[in-house]
Design goal:
Rossmann fold, N-utilizing Substance Protein B Homolog, Chain A, single chain
Length: about 450
């Protein structure tokens, strides 16, 4: 390419960090990839480390979290429906909007690097279009745009929150029902803050002193990493420690701390994949003279569980089995954890694409499955034993609704107070008396729900 003086100019190439973020967005959209699983591979492919890797991570994950806010803004800056904009160009426009509205990137840099990216991937025409659109986006800051494009909060608070905090309306409504109108915006805002990387020292295999970072507020086994790659920590690389949200650690602690009558020798993790809770439970079981059986439906995930448990004491084994059709006799266990498959709306901080993949209709399938799993968990525990039912979701249908259904259905089960099991945590009262609900905005954990159920006798026919 020659300029007016006849001299050749080198073609500007897209910035590697922005290219990496762009590749993640395309893979999430076109290939149903998961951001947290894909990012390490993409960062290595582009040779990114340190600050460049952190920039690419925030650019990709932040753009995915804020997608609907940016789409509402872009819709006012584009002379056609967004549905008619090429998918690859729209992905780049979202990246540019995130830099302009939510990152400390100078406008000229945000615009020019995005234009370079589009020129590199889609050609000169789309690059000119991108330049024109992003210059319009740069006219207002994020708050200014929200005031312009979101519904009036006084007449449509859910609609306003959906645009302002980039959550589908149905999720806003479900979270409002769970946490209340006074706190829902704080919760939605917390969902858009990147989750901390939390490590867990697996009891009997590692000590928290081996892990870099700050001790967690509630779990005695956790550490919040200050930065860096968890896989570079020797205890993590060796499988003696792992990456596990503090809320997930507390679920395992609740099961281990619950009181049982009589023997305490056999524990069951009914939905164990991918193995984080099972690895912690195995260490806790061994410390109490018990052993853990881990069950997981999908063989691939059962393999991940077996890998997490490799070398641990207190392990009975790992089974690839359908938890709704147990391969063991009723009453075989003293403690059972059923961390049921759920909507995952409690982990939107660490799974930025999840809010766009789930629909309200998913609950129609999930809730009956959760009820069956809890029913079978209660069959699997002996009278005098306990079951902890947990979900990484605060949605009432998946929490209080499931527990109420089982309590109404069975006369051999009682709901016990779980609060004394985690005395370190305050402001965690759940939707049913005695249940616990953790929150990102209150506890800086995933929104884990826990209910403690005791078997009181034989199930009536």
């Amino acid at each position: 390419m020659a300029d007016r003086r006849g001299k050749t100019r080198a073609r500007r190439r897209a910035d590697p960090a922005r290219l990496a973020a762009y590749d993640v967005l395309v893979a999430v959209r076109a290939g149903d990839a998961y951001t947290n699983l894909l990012l390490p591979t993409v960062l290595r492919r582009h040779g990114l480390t340190g600050r460049d890797a952190a920039f690419a991570t925030e650019l990709a994950a932040g753009t995915l979290r804020r997608r609907d806010t940016y789409d509402a803004v872009l819709a006012t800056c584009v002379d056609r429906s967004l549905a008619k904009v090429e998918h690859d160009v729209l992905d780049a426009l979202r990246l540019g909007a995130h830099q302009l509205l939510s990152m400390r990137v100078p406008p000229h840099a945000a615009i020019s690097t995005t234009v370079d990216l589009v020129h590199d991937r889609s050609g000169r025409g789309p690059a000119g279009f991108t330049n024109a659109v992003l210059r319009k986006v740069a006219r207002h800051d994020l708050d200014g745009w929200v005031r312009r494009v979101a519904p009036d909060p006084s007449t449509d608070p859910a609609g306003f929150a959906a645009v302002a905090h980039s959550h589908p309306r149905w999720i806003v409504e479900q979270l409002t029902a769970a946490v209340g109108e006074q706190e829902v915006e704080e919760l939605l805002a917390a969902d858009n803050v990147p989750a901390r990387v939390v490590l867990v020292a697996r009891p009997g295999r590692a000590d928290v002193s081996e892990l870099p970072g700050t001790p967690t507020r509630y779990s005695p086994y956790g550490v919040v990493m200050d930065g860096g790659d968890p896989s570079s920590v020797p205890a993590v690389a060796e499988g003696r420690a792992g990456v596990q949200d503090e809320g997930s650690q507390l679920v395992a602690l609740a099961l281990a701390r619950a009181g049982v009558e009589g023997r305490d020798e056999r524990w069951l993790d009914l939905c164990a994949g991918p193995g984080g809770k099972a690895a912690l439970l195995a260490g806790l079981a061994a410390g109490q003279g018990a052993r853990l059986l881990a069950a997981e439906l999908r063989p691939h995930r059962a393999g991940l569980v077996a890998r997490a448990l490799a070398g641990a004491d207190g392990v009975l084994g790992t089974l690839a089995v359908d938890g709704t059709r147990p391969a063991w006799l009723p009453g075989s266990f003293d403690r059972v954890l059923v961390d049921a498959p759920c909507s995952g709306l409690g982990a939107l901080r660490r799974r930025p694409e999840a809010r766009w993949r789930r629909t309200a209709a998913d609950l129609d399938d999930l809730v009956p499955l959760q009820e069956r799993l809890l029913d079978r968990a209660l069959d699997s525990v002996r009278p005098g034993g306990v079951v902890v039912y947990a979900t990484c979701s605060p949605v009432l249908a998946e929490t209080a609704g499931v527990v109420r259904t089982i309590l109404d259905r069975r006369d051999d089960v009682e709901l016990r107070d779980a609060a004394p099991l985690i005395p370190e945590v305050s402001q965690a009262a759940g939707p049913l008396p005695g249940t616990l609900q953790l929150w990102p905005h209150r506890h800086q954990t995933d929104a884990m729900f826990m209910a403690l159920l005791g078997r009181s006798g034989q199930k009536s026919s």
